[in-house]
Every structure is written in C-alpha cells, then in structure tokens.
Give the backbone structure.
Amino acid sequence: MRAPRVNAVTTAIATESSVQAAGSHRLSQLDVLESEAIHIIREVVAEFERPVLLFSGGKDSVVVLHLAAKAFWPGKVPFGLLHVDTGHNFPEVLAFRDATVARLGLRLTVAKVQDYIDDGRLRERADGTRNPLQTLPLLDGIAAGRHDAVFGGARRDEDKARAKERILSLRDEFGQWDPRNQRPELWNLYNGRHTVGQHVRAFPISNWTEYNVWRYIEREGIELPPLYYAHEREVFRRDGMWRAIGPVSEPRPGEAVETRTVRYRTVGDMSCTGAVDSDAASVSAVVREVALSTITERGATRADDRISEAAMEDRKKDGYF
Amino acid sequence: MTQALLTPADAGTTFAADAPGTLFRFATAGSVDDGKSTLVGRLLHDSKAILADQLESVTRTSTERGFGGADGGIDFALLTDGLRAEREQGITIDVAYRYFATARRSFILADCPGHVQYTRNMVTGATTADAVIMLIDARKGVLEQTRRHLSVVSLLRVPHVIIAVNKIDLLGYDESAFAAVAASVRAVTSELGLGAVHVLPVSALVGDNVVDRSPRTPWYDGPSLLELLESLPVVDEVETAIEAFRLPVQLVLRPQGAVAVALEDADAFRDYRAYAGQVASGTVRVGDSVSVAPGGATTIVTGIDFAGTELTEAFAPMSVALRLADDIDIARGAVIGAAGTLPESTRDLTAALFWLDPRALTPGDRTLVKFGTNTVQAIVSTVTGRLNLDTLELEPAGGLEVNDIGEVGLRLAAPLPVETFTENRRSGAFLVINAQDGATLAAGIVTGSGAR
C-alpha cells in the first residue's frame, strides 16, 4: 500500500493505516463499520433525488460528514446540510459548524425554532427544553427542500427505541416512525422505494458505538468543537448533571455555581445537556475515558431522555430523528 | 499534493480493548418464552456490557413490577424490549440491536422475536449474521417454530449454528434430559443438512454456561456460549479466500469540475473516473483482469482508491473505487468480476422466497427485484411449491402466504448475471419489492438460473 496521495476529507489525513495491510484478509472493526457506512451513503445518493444531511456540529454528524467526504472522493459531497437550531445551542458548536461548512464549500440551511416561537407556531415548554420542539421545523425544512432522504448520525446504542430502528427508516408525510410496521432489512440490500410525500431517514452509523465513534475520530484525526474536551467552566448542579451557565441555563436559588474541569459527551440543547467531570483534554484521553465509562452517553448528559422510559420512542413517532 | 493539515500529537494511540478488533454479528432465535431476551440480558450483564444507569433503570422497573418476588431480582428482558408495547405486553416485537465487546472481540447482536408473525424479523437478523443462537426450552424440546427457524437458518446459509438448550436448571441439570433434547435437535439439523452445530446446556436466568462454564453441568465439557462466540470465524474472512471477486457498481465517481475543496490540484482530477462499490466477495488486485456485466467486456484494474489512499488490493466487505484501463460503458447496476468468472446473464431463474408480507403471492404477480445495485421488474411465472416444515419437503401450492417459504420461477425484464445462493451468497440474494407501495415483500435466494 502506498502512502496516502492527498488529504481526503474533512480534516487531517488518516493518522494510521485506515485499511489493513495487504496479505491479511481481516478487517478491523472500524474498517468494517467504515465500509458499511460508506456503502449506505452511496446507496442513498444513488437511489434518491434530493438527500440532505442533518448537521449540528455534534460528533456523530461530523463523523457522517467525514464518511460522506470519503465516499465521494475526489468529488464534493453531493448533498447539502440541514440544521435545526433550537436557539439554545452552544456558541462554540455553531462556530465550528459554520467553519466546517465554509471549509468544505457545502450548502447549509438552518431552520430556527426561535422563528417558530416568535410567530406563535410553537410555544415554549414549561420545562424550558426545546429538543421536542425541533420536530416541526425539521419537517418543514425537509418539505421546503423537497428532501426524499435525510441522513442522520443516530446510533442504535444510544437508546432502546433507536436500537429497533432500521438503517433506512421510512417516514410518512408527518415524519412519523411506525415501529410495528418496519420493512425487513435483508443482507446489505437497502430498499429505498417510497411514495410521494414519504421520505427516508438514513442512519449510516447505526451500528457504531460511542467508543467506535471516538476511536474513529482518533484514527482519522477529525476535528471537533472544543467543548468535547476537558476545559474549565462555570457550572451548577441540577438533576445530577453539571449545567453550564448561559442565557437559557441560569442557576436557581440554592444551586451553587462553581468552576470545574468538565467536558461534554453530547452537545445538544444547552438547556437540557449536561457536562461531565473529566480531565480528558485530548482525543486519546477521551477514548480511554469512554472505554472505562460506567454510564451511557445519554444517561449522563440528557435531561430530556429522563422524562420517561419511552421518551425517545414517543418523539420519534412524532417525526423526530 | 496536499499534506496533512493537522496530526494530533497523540494520534495513533491504540487502546488495549480495541486491539484484536474483529467484529462478529450474531442473531438470536427461538419460540415465545424460550427466554431469548433473558439470555441476551444475561450475556450483556455477565460480560459487563450493561452500564450503571441502564442497570439501575431496569432494576427499578423490575422491582416496581414485583419481578423475582420479595427478594428482588432483575428482569433482563427489560434491557432489550425497548418499545412501550413490548414492555407493557412483556413480549419482543422487533429486532433489537445490541453492542458489546470483550477483550477478544466486538459483537453486534440482533435479538429477534419468536412469535410466528414476526418470522420476518428472524429472517432479517439471520441475513447479516455470522452465527445464530437458537434457543430451545429444555422442557419443551423441538417445536414447530424451532424447525421453522432452523430451516430459515439452513436456507440462508448462516455459517455457524449454536443451539442453546435453555432452562436446564428447571430440569435439575439432568444430563439425560439434555441428551434427549440434543438428540432430537441433531435429528432435525442433519435432516436440514446443517454442518457443524454446537449444542450446549444453559440457564439464562441463573447464568449457567452463558459466560462462564457452569459447575452444575459437570457432564458438559464444551465451551460456554461466550467462549464460542469469541472463537468462531467471521464469514467474510472464510469466504473471501474461496469466492470469486464481485463488485456491484453503486455509482460512477466522475467529479469533473466539482472536486473536493481540500484538493489543491483540482486539475489533476478533471478526467478522474472510477467505479464505486462494496466488494461483495473475493479479492481484487491492481493489474487484475476483470469482466463487466452487462456487456461482457474485459479490462484491467489500474487503480483501487479509498478516499485518497491508493490500495494494492481490496476484498470483501471493503467499500472502494476501481479505476479501469479501458473506457467501458459502466453504470450503476453493472457488476465487475474476476475475468471469466461472471455467469451468463439470464432473464429466467428459480428461487426460494421467504414471504414476509401479509398480502399473498399468486402466480402472474408483477414485482420488482433488487439484486446488488440493480432493481428490475419481474413476473412470478410459477409457484412450484411451499416448504412443509414438518416433512421439510416441497408440497404443491397455489401461492405463498406470510411466513411461507416456497419455490418460484421468475422472469426478469432485463438479463442479470445471477448466481445461485450456494455459489455466492451476495450475488445469489435479492429483495422482492412491491412496485406500488415499495414494501419489501420477500427475501429471495436463487436456486437455479436459465430457462427450464
């Protein structure tokens, strides 16, 4: 195998051999998962008219974008990006999102929950979280872009409902997921047929775990927003999580503010995403930390998934991703 | 040539847990109440793949429902039964995928429901599995559903079959009871022509022989379930060595002007043309002679690209892009294969169908079939028969209904280079799709090709 000819994609060049050496017909699990994801991305691009990638700047969507760039090298990624901005996103994630889009010369459409609240189409929830409010702007964004396929970075290890969703998941005109009526998914043959009004959600990294994602980020040298790594931040304790101080995340009386060294395992809505105590300041330290973690990613950091046992299932049935 | 923009100082560090790094996929199967979800929960729990917050949630729910009586206990089924209806009804509706790793290997587990109406999920899980774990209730022995699932496993050529004779604790760890069940299972598996079958006594509830070998079954000297899963070979590794090279073309990479921004020397790629796809079987090397179907043209592989890295060879299941010496008309749906190995394209074939849709199939029906990256129209010319799961013989049938396995004749709208599933599990597998609503109607495997 010769040395890489050019820098493939979103960031740095592969930092270790990404495909196994000649002579051995055994692929590492990352190589198998990578090839599976690239196959899925190419199938969707080949079979659909107007795919789009849901891109938040979070690690999973960054990995899917990296895979897309590899899938179509040396061409450009042949689809645009869509972000549903809750208005509660971390500013450093939005900055990263915009820098990545500019660097790769991609087209980004932003659907803003705030616009919907301002004109009364959506109302702020009593608990202040805006995650469930994303569904309507998402569906409007899909309809406005006439997208028949929507890529997402969801993984089956994240949640019990996601564990049951197909890689290509058919949604009706309301974006609804019907878990009891899913198409069987056979071999690596993906069925992308759909009728007018339907669209498909495509999850190329369905079979990846949080650990796989971090090992891949390490191997490929993929850049992420800085808050994934340990940093000092003013935080307060709520619901067993460290919450950052911000415009939508103010301490209540009795919630003491302190400066701690933390990092984020997920970067969603600031009003419901918590940080974890961590001194993992580098990618290899995070890989080690994730390998040893005794709590799931969403359990550690997402208040919205604690609403009920079936919080994710209920959101998905309503058109959430 | 662009150089690396950034190489993190600590990049390339490998973590011990990832070292061997092979990925093994397996599925569970069995009848209702054989304890599949419990076995899966036990496997995850005892291999320490369940994290604290998941365990806490399951323990809380188990206690709320009075599981395990006054002294508590954990209902492991709650770990995989993720849907509201599943938890309410205490059943498994859909395939649940779970992920765990040991020091030796990483696993993807497809937990498949046992209800007869969910046989389609069993088929779904089996098509991608390196191994299937078939659960049998030691007290009940071989049931109709056991035979049905073993037939599916056999027809789909699942490489490894593990029979877990469960609830052995309820029979007082009796060796002769286990031997009787094992004998009746082996009678079925040999009838089905299943080769190496591993039969082991387990108790999912208590944990015997799941992760660790049990002292309560001293008469059993084989490996535990997890030891088996850690040691069986992965299907692609086995088959790559013996199968001919095949790559169904997904799309043609021809960026012309639209090259990635990261490429400074865009002009160098102005005439770039490569054929992207996932290697379905075998190995290809730069310099190899390959043929293309349709058309039958032969040419030489001049390059194998993987996102900017030039490879000297590629093998299943790698996703790559091939550059060829000659400008041949190749589009999505074409198949590139080792020269001289592609079968003659045909419009007529016989196939076994696993009918998965509530709407019945009748002769004369028009459908779509998807082979690799090729979707064509087809007419079901004949329904030869339906598999009788008691006799395991084909019996005459006027059509196929949901959960039937039958043999049909198909006439395709365009000739395709199909192979029998026995020859090549990728080229010989296809989907049957409803042309109107797009539903996946059946899993198909080719049993013969050419007009009869």
